[in-house]
Every structure is written in C-alpha cells, then in structure tokens.
Amino acid sequence: MHLLKELWSARELLGNLVLRETRGQYKRTVLGRLWSLVNPLASMLIYTFIFSVVFRIQPEPGDPSGMNIFPLWLMCGLLPWGFFAASLNATATSLLANAGLISKVYFPRAVLPIAAVGTTGMNWLIEMSVLTVALLVFGSSILIWLPGVLLVMLLLALFAIGLGMALSIVNVHFRDTQYLLSILLQLWMYLTPIIYPATLIRDLSDRVGNLLNTNLTIYDVYTWNPMYHFVSAFRQLMYDNRWPDSQNLLICASWTAVALILGLWVFGRSEKKIAEIL
User: Do 163 and 263 contact (CB within 8 A), yes or no?
Assistant: First the structure.
C-alpha cells in the first residue's frame, strides 16, 4: 500500500519519464517513429511467407466477421505479443539503465519499470492505429470493438508491469537475467498461438489423448499459458469482431492480479536496497 501511495505521488515524474523516453527513442533517425512499424511489418512478411505460403497454414475465418486474410490474422496476434515482449525486455533493464539517476536522487524506483511499459505502449498505439486502418479497409467492424481492445490492453499492460517489476529486481541481483529472458521469450512466443492457430494444438491433443493416465491433455497444459488467453481475447475482438469469451477475460484478469501482487511484493521488499546494490 505504501508503494502505491508513492507511485501516485510521483505520477507527474512518471509522465515526464515516458515523454522523455518516447521523444528520445528515435532521435536523429531519418524515419523517426516510423521505425516502430518496421519490426512488426518485417515479422508479418516473414511469418506470412513461411507459415501461409510454404506450410500453407490457414486459420479459420473470423467468426462472425468472415475475414480470411492471414497477414491481418497474424498481426492481431503479433501486436499484443510484441508489446508484451518489448515491455518485459525494457522493464528488466530499467533499473540498471538508470543506475546513475538512482544513486543521485531519491524517488519511487517502481516508476522506472512502469515508465518503460508506458513508452512501449506509445509505440503500440502507433502500430495499432495502422492495423485498425488496414482492418477497416478490408471490411472489419473494428471501431465498435476498440473499447474492448483498450480494456484487454490495460490488463496486458498491468500484467507486464507486475512481471517486469519482479524481473527488474532479479536482474539487479543476477545480471544474466536479461540475456536469459530473451531466450525464454522466444520459446514463450512459439508456445502461444500467434503464428499458428490453436486448432493445430487441439488436433494434436485429440490424437495423443490423455497424458500419463490422467484427465489432462496436451491442450489443457497448453492453455495454462497466460498469453494464450490474452492473444485469444485480442483476436476475438479485432479479427472475429465479437466480445471475448468470459472465461478468457476472467483468466486474463486473474493472471494480471497475480502478476501485480507478485511484482509489488518483490519490489517492495527490495526497493530500499537498490541504490546500494547498484
């Protein structure tokens, strides 16, 4: 509770940090903020060629939108994942990157990982704007579902903040964390239905049957992944044009609550020692 009060009192500092990082991110570059679109567009082209052209993977048409365009289906999963992965990478190094500032003046240290997520969110807004226009061009009714998208995005941002706060502390103690994280995120991505539909895992699960004489199946274990539910919720809103399954939203909210409680607890226990350790 004390940490939350400090964060509220430092809200102006938080806003200034986000603006500073956002303005300086692509300083002295020719394309400026357009560079934030290069990575998702490049990923879309590569994954579309490999999975749609080479392996001919075809997800089911949007229900009820009827949309059947692989690159747009792909982007509806890549954008939330890209935000999440970039947020974790940024928050994990946020304390080390600001070691000089931390050693000079006191302020709520939790502002730094939160500002890192906020800066990543600014890039996501640009990417989301472009994707929204593309969906509208191809006949999507995305505009009426944007409030739902923002709600799920808020849950995902809070989920990333909770995990990121814990990771930033771990990275202060064990500097290998930031390198291990990049490997884990690659594995995590392929365990999430972003570049392939979840029906492939469901079909595999049906063929294999129950695991080790239990009632569990491969698909049951697969859905333990919190990002499965976040990506599914985004796709249901943006690609299918319908409200997400209530179970998906409940699980997303539950994972967000767990991550925030864990992150605040870990950060609260170690905040006073950060300057000394750095």
Answer: yes
